[in-house]
Amino acid sequence: MSLKDNEAYFSQVRVIAVLTPESVASALALSRVLFDAGLRMHEITLRTEWALEAIAVLTRELPGLIVGAGSVIAPELGEAAIHAGARFLVSPGTNDALLEFAADCGVPFLPGVSTVSESMRVLALGCTAAKLFPADVLGGIAFLRSLAAPLPAMKFCPSGGMDAQVAPGYLRLSNVLAIGGSWMAPADLLREKRFAEISQLAQAAAAL
Predict the structure, then answer these.
(1) Is 7 a catalytic site residue?
(2) What is the pLDDT of residues 3-31, one digit of tens each?
(3) pLDDT, tens digit, for every residue of 33-83?
């Protein structure tokens, strides 16, 4: 499984925790709390120098966790993430080189799209699930609802602007598999290590 037939893989959960931890230690502490609260798929964005190490540590220390890499914008990043132990890859958008890599990368790949044309392009490659990003800026629920009739085979994992208030509306849509977000781990609570409160938010997210 890679780019083609990725729908089943990303149907495993309803909420994907999208995390950009400030350190490897922070990543482990946060992912442990979120996993124990019921969120079992975590996307570690490749936006920091320690992201790959964090993926490797999470893979080793939390074997039941489904750890993937986000912000994959080039094949080299995808290859490095897979080597670190990432079990899936997510991109914010696509280009020819990335799609070529995704078609044969060996792990489930969720390509980012933001238009009908981009959705049709990945669908033509046999990909029936994509990340809609940034969902809120693109029109959110109304935009996704408008895609259901012309693209009935396409399913989405919207990300961008998610919070506890809007999440249920997205998840009620027939063409939404899961949503991605970090609202269950607010920066202020993380900074002050208020993990009990983060756990409560994560339990609510896992119950959606």
Answers:
(1) no
(2) 987 999 999 999 999 999 899 999 999 99
(3) 999 999 999 999 999 999 999 999 999 999 999 999 999 999 999 999 999
Catalytically annotated residue among 43, 155, 192, 193: 43
- Global pTM reads 0.97
Tokens of 101: 């890599």
Q: What is the 3-state secondary structure (H, E, C) of the chain?
A: CCCCCCCCHHHCCCEEEEECCCCHHHHHHHHHHHHHCCCCEEEEECCCCCHHHHHHHHHHHCCCCEEEEECCCCHHHHHHHHHHCCCCEECCCCCHHHHHHHCCCCCCEECEECCHHHHHHHHHCCCCEEEECCHHHHCHHHHHHHHCCCCCCCEECCECCCCCCCHHHHHCCCCECCEEECCCCCHHHHHCCCHHHHHHHHHHHHCC
Given 22, 49, 131, 193, which residue is catalytic? 131
Tell me, yes or no, if 4 is annotated catalytic: no
